[in-house]
Every structure is written in C-alpha cells, then in structure tokens.
Task: inverse folding
C-alpha cells in the first residue's frame, strides 16, 4: 500500500486513485491474502473509500477463514471511530456468522445497532427488535449497556410497558453482577462502560420516567428517591 500511495503521489493523482483497480486485481480476480488485504482495508477506511471496501469484502466473506480477522479489524476501526468502515465489516461478519449463535455475532449486532444509532440510519423500533434476541449472548457486563440502550430506544417511542420491563431486567442483571463481583478478584478487567452501581440507579430513573408518563406520580417519586439513594 505504501508503494502504491507513493506511485499515486508521484503521478500527481488524488490519494487512493488506484485502489479500486488494485482491489479488483488482488482480491476479486485473485485469491486474497490477509497480509495484503488488511492494510488495503485499513487504508480504504482512512480515506473513506467505502465502495472499494464493499467490492472486496463481499468477495472475501465467501471464505469463512477470514471471519475472525475481519471482526478484529472491525473492532480496531470502531475504537478509532472509523465508523463507516467498521459498519461494513460488522455487517459482513454478522452475515457470515448468522447461523452460529455466537457471542461474536451478538457483539456485531450490538455494534451495528450503536453505529446505526450514531449515524441516524435506522428506524428505532426495527433496530430494537433486531437487537433484542442477541442480548443474552453478549458478555454479561456488556449486557448492561445493551439493555440500557435498548430501554432508551423504547423510551424515545413511548413504549412504556417495554421500558419498565427492561428497567426491571437491568436491575436483575446488576444484582447478579454485584453478586459475582463479591466472589471475583478485584483486579479483574471490567467491560461495562460505567461503574456497575450506576446501572441500578438508571433502572430506577427509567421506572420513574415511566410512572410519570403514566401519571403515577407517587410511584415516580418513590423510584426517583431510589435513584438518588443508589448514588
């Protein structure tokens, strides 16, 4: 890729000018090799050459031996906020894993949900329905974030029964995590985005908002008190 970029620069052409031709010759018309494919995908993501990624990636996913590498690369792009490129890779991995019912598939679906939400590319109810079956396959701590995010989506469309149900589910998962923490080593790496106790507080805040929307003001006040006490 470095040589190709230098040739392009020496010819006075825009960055990535030959990427489409390179992708076809090296990865579509020939058997792809990960040592060449990885830098190509990464550079395309940097330059937002999404069409080049799509043209190559759908050819590559026919070979399931690259699924793990594509997932790791998607995670890398996601951590660097190269969201458009990451989304393409997550969707390809999810399509390749759709019959596996794995934690990796569940995490792909969760990342797709978050990226669509970030980019305002999805219908709220459809996205929530698509994510929900995968939550139990996620890492136990990541489930806390997924349930919280799912509840927030239902909250925006005023689906109050579902919000309350998910708030209770969030509370149960927090209690389970707190029980596990008491038996685990304290230096164990956490995967939840927030400290565990904040999810219980947020569950009570969700319940308070539901009760307020349903004009159950005394119950709303009670849950609001629990929310404050959790902090």
Result:
């Amino acid at each position: 890729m470095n040589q190709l970029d230098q040739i392009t620069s020496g010819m006075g052409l825009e960055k990535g000018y030959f990427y489409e031709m390179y992708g076809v010759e090296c990865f579509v018309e020939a058997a792809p090799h990960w040592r060449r494919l990885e830098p190509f995908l990464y550079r395309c993501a940097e330059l937002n050459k999404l069409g080049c990624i799509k043209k190559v990636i759908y050819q590559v996913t026919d070979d399931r031996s690259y699924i793990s590498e594509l997932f790791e690369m998607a995670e890398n792009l996601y951590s660097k906020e190269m969201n458009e490129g990451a989304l393409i890779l997550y969707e390809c991995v999810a399509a390749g894993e759709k019959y596996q019912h794995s934690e990796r598939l569940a995490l792909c679906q969760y990342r797709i949900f978050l990226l669509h939400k970030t980019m305002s590319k999805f219908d709220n109810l459809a996205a929530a329905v698509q994510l929900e079956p995968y939550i139990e396959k996620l890492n136990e701590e990541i489930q806390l974030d997924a349930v919280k995010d799912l509840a927030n989506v239902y909250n925006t469309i005023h689906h109050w029964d579902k919000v309350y149900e998910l708030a209770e589910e969030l509370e149960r998962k927090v209690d389970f995590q707190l029980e596990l923490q008491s038996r685990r080593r304290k230096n164990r790496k956490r995967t939840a985005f927030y400290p565990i106790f904040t999810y219980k507080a947020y569950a009570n805040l969700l319940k308070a908002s539901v009760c307020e929307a349903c004009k159950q003001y005394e119950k709303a006040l009670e849950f609001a008190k629990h929310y404050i006490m959790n902090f």
